[in-house]
Hints:
Chain A has helices at about 25-30, 35-45, 60-65, 70-75, 100-110, 150-155, 165, 170-195, 205-215, 215-220, 225-250, 275-280, 325-340, 360-365, 430-440, and strands at about 15-20, 45-50, 80, 90, 115-120, 130-135, 145, 200-205, 255-260, 265, 270-275, 305, 310-315, 345, 350-355, 355-360, 375-380, 385, 395-400, 405, 410-415. By secondary structure, chain A is of the alpha/beta class. Chain A has an eight-stranded mixed β-sheet, sandwiched between helices. Chain B is built from eight helices and five strands. Chain B has a five-stranded parallel β-sheet, sandwiched between helices. Classes of the chains: A alpha/beta, B alpha/beta.
Amino acid sequence: MAFKLFGRKTKKACVIGLDGVPYTLLKSMIERGVMPVTGEIISRGSLSSMTVTLPEISSVSWSTFMTGKNPGEHGIFGFTDLKDGSYDLRFPSFRDLKTETIWDLLGKTGGRSIVINQPSTYPAREIPGVLISGFVAIDIEKALYPKKYLASLARARYKIDIDTEKCRDNPDLLFKDLDALLECRRRVLDELWTKEPWNIMEIVVTGTDRLHHFVWDAWEDESHPHHQDFLGYYRKVDQFIGYVYSKFEREDTPENFFMLSDHGFCQTKKEVHINTVLEQHGFLDMETGDSADLTRITENARAFALDPARIYIHRRSRYPKGRVDERDVAGIKEELKGVFESLADDGAAERRPIIRQIFDADEVYSGPHAAMGPDLLLLPNNGYDLKGKVGGSTMVAERRLQGMHTWDNAFFFSLRNDLSDTSDELQIVDVPWKILRSVDVGA
Amino acid sequence: MKGFTLWFTGLPCSGKSTLAKHVEEILLERGVPVEVLDGDEVRENLSKGLGYSKEDRDINIRRIGWVCKLLSRNGVVAIAAAIAPYQEIRDEVRRWHDRYVEVYLKASIESLKERDVKGMYKQALAGKIKNFTGISDPYEEPENPEVLLETDQETVEESVNKIIRTLELLEYIPTAETETEYSADEEEKIKTRLKDLGYI
């Protein structure tokens, strides 16, 4: 009598996420000899430039990566949303993700994943394997599934993130903390590598994003006092990549090695306050007051923005004080497009347009949850960091941080050329399916 | 509330009855009407007299499936916990339903032998029990279950969470009432971090 044997998946894939590392920066670091190990690995595979989903922020990009779906399907549109029936901010959590993750899909075929420092998975929930949540995780106990690995994290002296408040204006502390963070990621990787069976090992380095936000100038300016520190951190990232790869090389399918970033980065020149633009052009009306949020909005407001540049029409059907009827939405969108198309930085030596492209949500989102998202999305020209803050007095203001995200110029690397895409049309939503294919899980 | 059928399939001692009971409790807490059809109990009444030949096993599964269909079309969540070793008959039962979730409890024979307090595996291996699924009778692994549980590697809590999460994602059951994902203190900390990184 024939019995079907219980089979266990044997193929493995290893994924390193480098938060906010641009394709061009990575290439430059390799060309300059700062990242020789990474350069050697990359020379054997295929490195591609990649665009991400909109808006170009980690919570949305990583949610797209972990599901292989666009925000209209996975339901994450930003770090913030409004609470139902109110104008109070809420912070979407992992529970708000409306679709299965690649780890769930792998799990259905009997495969398991170990996922370390994955942004936008807090509070951690059960996955087939192990999950350690990354940004915006706060409490390590809530950031871990299953809890039995708390002791492993303690042994690794694991930290979720640097102290952003203290580090943003203190580069010396920043570099020290970034090093420590990378080390504790390595220790926890060692702890978990052999503790659990796994098919996908994923680890995300988020220090790169913090570095870029706080000291991007040190990259652009070789005479900057922290230029060498900046390169020094990348040398450590290079060693880290080499360390992970050397472990993975000893597994059965070492060709399934991938790296990616979740968005690009560039230098910030100015901040642009979208809600102030809306106010000054008569779309947003607020009661006078001190609160720097949308709770002061009035019934006369026709549109508002949530960070970074998601514009919502103040619909009667959706918001307590909304008075815009559906029949008027298309007209307001056209008016808004006119305003933002002509928005320029008059303070620059040459008058420069601020907005590179305006997207109608219908163009970029599809799926059952698309209606939860914004109506328009603005993509800035490099250097203009769009902000959804409320209460700004000027439309264009001095920058607070040195680096800002970009929609394009993210990267994807596959050691397997048959899973690469050098067409210049690669999008982050395509990447998880390639990784799943490497372990024989179909779309 | 629309009903559906949740079918637990797997080898003897893989945890079908245990998990069915836990899921039943959670669904009842969420105000969902539930009925559990446990394979052992069904053989004491609805299928009394049936044996373990393929024919009798198929009749048993069809009976359970039929009751599940009636219950689920009337707004009840029907939970079946029965070995259901044959793919063909599982597929047939699935075809009767609009909303059907198959949960496969996968575990190695070795782990099941260890778990088997009644010593059934030992007796089957010694030839004292005939037609014992997994030893002297076949078990065809489900080809495409909605939920795969590795009950020799997961805790009961992990397995239950996996089932509940799938049912939530399918929007077959309401999400658990939670005040908020974050405490007030956490919300403040998150806000501060987002400000530090220029997001808000």
